[in-house]
Write a structure and sequence with these properties.
Blueprint lengths: L28 H11 L3 H14 L3 H9 L2 H8 L5 H14 L3 H9 L3 H4 L8 H14 L3 H9 L2 H11 L6 H10 L3 H9 L2 H8 L5 H14 L3 H9 L2 H7 L6 H14 L3 H9 L3 H6 L6 H14 L3 H9 L3 H9 L4 H15 L3
Helix pairs in contact: 1-2, 1-3, 2-5, 3-6, 4-5, 5-8, 8-11, 10-11, 10-13, 11-14, 13-14, 14-17, 17-20, 20-23, 22-23
Length: 348
Amino acid sequence: MAAPQSHETKAMPTAQQPDQVSEAFGLLKAPKLVSQISQSENKTLRLNALRVLGEELRNPLDAGGVTRAGVTEVLTKLLKDDDTKTREAASKALAALAVDPNGRFSLSSTAAAPLILPSLSDPSPIVRSNLYDCCLSYTAVRTGIDEVVLGGFVPVLVKKATSETDDVRHLPLQLLYNCIKSEVGLREALDSNAVEACIENLAHKDSLVKKDAAGTLGFLCFADSAKITAIQNDAVSKLSSLLVDPFWKVRANAAQALMSIIQTDSGKKAIVSCEGVAPLIKLLKDPEGLVKINVLKTVAALAVHPDARKEMRESAECLPVIHGIIDGGDEFLSKHALIAREAVLWQP
């Protein structure tokens, strides 16, 4: 007797959609993905492949594979693409790439910095923001700093510090901060009027811009010439006004910048003349430890000036608050409070 025939039908394999990223495995995985990004004429497929790449870059093993497959060169070329979404996706992938050591090595070995620089003027703020993030991650290491400085970024960043859109402007200030860790970068920044650019941003409405302007200005002012420029451009008065800013990181960076500037006699005279001693004394009570540390250091440096020292001694708050910090149980804060107290009580 013949076996009954089954009426079940086997499902036919589904044809791959033209916009779908086809995945390969093993050693072919990374090259296949990179080829779909670089060679596809289908923009939707290319965008999908770029999104997949972003996921791959989160895994260090996969990140190494795609960088060896030449993805960095492909991404920097796509920064010139006519399609805005493609440029945005490529810049986002570059930002993810720079977080990984393999990616940073690839950026260096392919000399990517000068290829990225023109796109800091891309019409899309998303592209610009992504590329600032990329370079910030890249300059977390010394090689990256040297490559970015050598790539001609510093003068451009100084201009961007006063011309970028408000929501992005803090990023070139942050990147400039990293670049001036290099002697060449510092020299180029000073030659490009970076001090004046930072001072201009101290009055910006955005808290992040004020924070990074004060932080970068403080770092610049380790150079004596920058201190002079800062004093001549009323930076001491503007920084003193930021000591009461609602955002604690603005207060911390303002105090640190003042500490750099008042190492000179003219800096001390400037803070006394603009009545900046009183807000410093009030800031000794700040709840944030970093603010307190920076203020204690500034008080210790400023107390050399006789008028400032007199105001601190006669204040009903200064020495009692410093004593409270000494006895507060925080060893690090206590150490700096002891130095500040000695400076305030010093007799010539």
